[in-house]
Amino acid sequence: MAIDKEITEKAKAWPFDEARRLLKRLGGTVPEKGYVLFETGYGPSGLPHIGTFGEVQRTTMVRRAFEEISDIPTKLFAFSDDMDGLRKVPENVPNQEMLTEHLYKPLTDIPDPFGTHDSFASHNNAQLRTFLDDFGFQYDFKSSTEFYRGGLFDNALIRLLEIYDDIMAIMLPTLGAERRQTYSPFLPICPETGHVLQVQVLQTNADDGTIVYQREDGKKIETTVTGGACKLQWKPDWAMRWYALNVDYEMSGKDLIDSVQQSGRICKALGGRVPQNLTYELFLDENGEKISKSRGNGLTIDEWLSYAPKESLAFFMYQKPKSAKRLYFDVIPKNVDEYLAFLSKYPEEESARQAENPCWHIHQGKPPESDIPLNFAMLLNLASVCNTENKEVLWGFISRYAPNASPEKNLMLDQLVGFAIRYYQDFVKPEKFYRAPNKQEAAALESLATVLDGTAPDADASELQTQVYEVGKEHGFENLRDWFKACYEVLFGQTQGPRMGSFIALYGVAKSASLIRRALSGEDLAKG
Known about the structure:
Elements: H1 5-8, H2 14-25, E1 36-42, H3 50-69, E2 74-80, H4 96-101, H5 120-134, E3 140-143, H6 144-149, H7 154-162, H8 164-171, H9 177-182, E4 186-188, E5 201-205, E6 210-214, E7 220-224, E8 230-232, H10 234-245, E9 252-253, H11 257-270, E10 279-280, E11 283-284, H12 301-307, H13 310-318, E12 325-326, H14 332-345, H15 351-354, H16 358-362, H17 376-386, H18 391-401, H19 411-428, H20 439-453, H21 461-474, H22 480-492, H23 500-507, H24 509-520
Parallel strand pairs: 1-2, 2-3, 9-10, 11-12
Antiparallel strand pairs: 4-8, 5-6, 6-7
Helix pairs in contact: 2-3, 7-10, 8-11, 10-11, 13-14, 17-19, 20-21, 20-24, 21-23
């Protein structure tokens, strides 16, 4: 359902902020090319990672918000810099020796180490496109190699050659003394070795569209800069692309702030307009270090999707793009449950709140109905107590708790059950440590079991939560957090856990009483 434009003009959600800024920049008019161009960049020297996906996801959110406040047509180019020369072999790919033999060649001229595509770039580009397609992104994939070798950049390359000295004046002050001696924005492709050469340019001829460079062996070579005979250093390349395609919007990471500034100056020198930019913070791994596609630290796309639905990953990307966030396995459950909470609230919210609900942006204005009667944390704790790899065991409890739910009708819930079991087995179970209760805790747990003995089987979660509270108070827990922590450590083998009332309602009143007595008797609960 579309949201009234008066509301979107005031919505505080960051994609709408960006969209309004872009519309103002355009003066509310259609660009000469006939559409507003959003762009994202991908360097296929390594496998696609979540940072790559995040840039497309966030840009799509801005694009969708722009379409909501404007009738101007839009396009999104997912641009792969696949003509870049391979400067080092990524650590997380096979056939390292073979790749080493092809260092410095364009990525599209290097054999695929996985043996499934005609080049290394083709393999990684396919990985990116498959994932973006699975998420339903609307985009046009563009290849740097196709643009260079197909002549689509020729006019822009000639223009850059015309202002060669201006480009050098922008770039040289940013380089070290040694690098300045040989720097050139043009990187010739050696016709003999196929290498992308970082060599000194001795002469430029804009009229003929050629440069003269000197190879390491001292030989002087004249080559055209068009038709794929040369590519550009990446900062001039980025600027040239903005100019050639007339890009209107492109976001980038905090580590590229200086690059944005330098590329922006080059774009202006070419006669183009610098795209609107949003600088987002970087993702960090479990050690607080920047994730890297070549190192393979942090989470991969496939790893996240092994433990949680894709919507939770989109939610993670939506949240505070200008704040650094840890991207590791322990963030998954929280993001799943926060996504589910926003999704369940959406239908009851006024339009103004819906425009600021992450689910509107995740689902491009059309969030589905929520059919999840319990959250991921609760499923994790159920899996923990049952200690099973069988989904049917968990569904036995869920069906009693929510009689109208079933694997066939509640498809996402059934997915979450499988995710919860997998996450529990891989991350929770290895860290579980059950401890024996102290005297005060044992007495309180025995009292709780007795209270549950006299409680109706269909008691609701709030009533059960109250009973747990009262037992804690009666047994002198001055800070009830200590009481709940004792429940978690003794019954679940964990330092944190669910609302006890909700868990008891799900697991069953009688079975919860039995679980408590098994723990008090010293039985090994880890066996389920």
